[in-house]
Design brief:
Layout lengths: L10 H52 L1 H9 L3 H8 L10 H4 L4 E4 L11 E4 L3
Amino acid sequence: MKTQKAIAFSLVEVLAAITIIGVVVFLAVPNIIQIREDSEENLATARAASLDVAISSFIQANGRASANTLWSGTNNAGRYNLLLPYLGFAEGSLSAFEPNGYDFTLPASISPPTKTAVSASTN
């Protein structure tokens, strides 16, 4: 009579595999979260820079005096709407253009031009 030998993992082997997977996850998850936060920060910086370039283009296209008059007569959302033609592939509103967790404040005056302020949102 032939006996069959069972082929399976022992409890110790299964627990060792689960422990190794747990250690890898423990080490990887914080790094993945940090990469995501860094990418959001980089996106916010890049979008603020594109707003600054759009402001320069807006001034060049409209002339400094006319651009300053249009700019000073509106709020942050209205200023973004003035910049939309100079932003490639931009969202329809400033709040949609802002990355998650960041707020942009366009300069109150474009004479002299200043950079767009980027801040972490409080909500």
